[in-house]
Amino acid sequence: MFSLFNKKTEVPKIPLKVDIHSHLLAGLDDGVKSLEEAIDVINDLVEMGFEKLVTTPHVMNDTYRNEPTGIQNGLTELEQHLANNGINIELQAAAEYYLDEFLYARIINKESLLTFGDKYLLFETNFISEPLQMKEFIFQASSQGYRLVLAHPERYGYMTMEKAEDLRNRGVFFQLNSLSIGGMYSKSVRKMALQLIDKGWVDFLGSDCHNPVQSKILKALQKNKHYQRACSLSLLNNTL
Amino acid sequence: MQQQRFLPEYVNRKLEDFNKLQQDRDRLALAYNENTFAFRQKEKEVSLAKETIFKQLTELKSDWLKTLAELRQSKENLEKGFATMPDKNTQYSKNQRFYKLYEEFYLSMMQSKAQFEIAQAGNVPDFKILSPASLPIVPISPKKLLILGIGLVASFVVNFFFLGISYLLNNKITSAQEVEKSIHVPLLGVIPTSHRKSNSLFHVVDNPKSMVSESFRSLRTNLDFFTIGGHKKIITVTSTISGEGKSFLATNLGGVLSMSKKKVLLIDLDMRKQKNESSMLALDPSKGISTTLIKKTTWAECIQSTGLENLDFLPAGPHPPNPSELLLNGEFTNLLEELKEAYDFIVIDTPPVGLVTDGIMAMKRADLSIYVLRANYSKKEFVNTLNRISSIHKLTNLAVVLNALPTTGKTYGYGYYEDKPKRKGWRDLVKI
């Protein structure tokens, strides 16, 4: 009954200041195609009130073999371009690591990985089935002091609320995609996203922005009540 | 004086009075002189009375004359009317006839009425109405509710009947959960059905971002987990019958392994059947593993390029008369040992184990045997074949891959996996 009434009360709008998931380095992955597109997206994000962006190119052994140096170069280039265009925003680069045998090997071999904030490591898995290494990976990475952030948990086909709870019990942070709330990926992804919001199992909101189309949708999403509800959760975005 | 009867009373009386007066005068005349006052007085009275009577009589006369004239008039009228009498008579008799007719009719009606009333009076029933009959507002038949009820029950029965039939008839494997429940070996992965056609054999190369390729990559990742510690990896791919996707799985697994910068050899061990896939790759059908096993050629001579870097192909070669025996002799083991030196991975596409034993030979020498089941194609009893083979031949390194699982629900609509065209996503957003 109470929730019925509570719905009407306006959710206090807490603007997100830091975005932790985007693909804004042109040519490194399937994100923006050019510096101009990147500028377009960043302009939109600035308009939404973001003050700091952690951009996270894919790191996938087969398709996007990005290394820290390449990512750093891309970042420097983008920063230069931003400065030329007079856009003032703090930029940082990390990576969205794809969990496969190679990432697992890198953890085992204690290779240095790109993180943001307090050793937060953003990673994703394949969308179809949970990798068999998942739990071992979480254990190994956590024991090395990494704080694992699972990108868009709502989008994995194998994800259930039980599995999500288990992952959270293992200390994995969840980064929800804002676009999932709007139903950009699919209805069931949206449903899962809302379930996670209901449970409060969201630690970060990420734009996962690949192109200007998505950033426009993201802008339209600001008025969405579920998005505002997600923003009102105790998110770690603004602590970075 | 005699009374005149036709004269009115008052005239008669006057006349009487006059006669009496005359008699009085006459008597007086006897006694008195004519010039006496008394006589004269009487004389005067007589003449006065005479005058009055005269006057009255005159009036009477004129009255009578008038009456006479009137009577004459009416007599004339009557006579005139008398002339029309016969005509009136016929009219009368005519009316009389009609009247009689109507009267008779009326009487007969009255009679009938009386008879009817008598009959009605005789028919009075001897029961009492305790309560008036109720008029139903719905028809007695057809009973809608009953028909609906029967229909509902019938539909349930029919549904359950068909469900039961289809359940009994459906002996196909349909889901990953089903496989996981019924087998003792791990489920290595699931390959979804592909929405796109591949031009070459390597789906993973043509459509690197498709869900099928994604599933192959995850298969590779799981494979790595599975063979941790092993250096050289011989992977056989087999199934119960043909058509379950062995060759598809073997070629694409080889492809995806080679993409991770490993040297991979794909062997077609099905020496019994010429397949489209191998003929597509094998440029020279006279050489292959069969010729190598009989030491007619060396394996290095038979290696064909697949067009992919790091992936080589060893075709089956010409159909030998005794494929199983060829695999039984030590040459096959030696060949594998040699190949292990040259390659990181060896993926062997074997004939179906449900039919021939060739596959078992290879599986015994493999580091990992992948058993392919195809959703909605492989029968449930294939699982028993798998369990039997693994127990009889003591194969410990078996794993199952479920192929061609239809994609549903969440697996649709990945933002950056390009399997499905972008759907109503944008419109949904406008609505919020």
Task: Describe what you observe in this structure.
- Helix content of chain A is 41%, strand content 14%.
- Chain A has 240 residues and is α/β, with parallel strands linked by helices.
- Chain A has one domain (2-239): Alpha-Beta Barrel (TIM Barrel).
- The relative contact order of chain A is 0.16.
- Residues 1-12 of chain A have low confidence and may be disordered.
- Chain B is built from 16 helices and eight strands.
- Chain B is rod-shaped and about 220 Å long.
- Chain B has an eight-stranded mixed beta sheet with strand order 1-8-7-2-6-3-5-4, with helices on both faces.
- The longest helix of chain B has 47 residues, at 37-83.
- Residues 411-432 of chain B have low confidence and may be disordered.
- With 432 residues, chain B is an alpha/beta fold.
- Chain B has two domains: 9-81; 176-411, 3-Layer(aba) Sandwich (Rossmann fold).
- The chains are: A alpha/beta (240), B alpha/beta (432).
- The interface between A and B is large, with 38 and 36 residues.
Compact description:
Chain A is of the alpha/beta class and 240 residues long.
Keywords:
heterodimer; A: 240 residues; alpha/beta; TIM Barrel; six-stranded parallel β-sheet; three-stranded parallel β-sheet; 10 helices; 9 strands; 14% strand; globular; B: 432 residues; Rossmann fold; eight-stranded mixed β-sheet; 16 helices; 8 strands; 10% strand; rod-shaped
Class by alpha and beta content of chain A? alpha/beta
The residue ranges of chain B in which pLDDT falls below 50 over 5 or more consecutive positions are 411-432
| CATH class descriptor name of the largest domain in chain B | Alpha Beta
Instruction: Count up the helices of chain A.
Output: 10
Write down the oligomeric state. Answer: heterodimer
Whole-number average pLDDT of chain A?
89
Strand order of the largest sheet of chain B: 1-8-7-2-6-3-5-4
How would a crystallographer describe the biggest sheet of chain A? 6 strands, parallel
Please give the CATH architecture of chain A.
Alpha-Beta Barrel
Structural class of chain B: alpha/beta
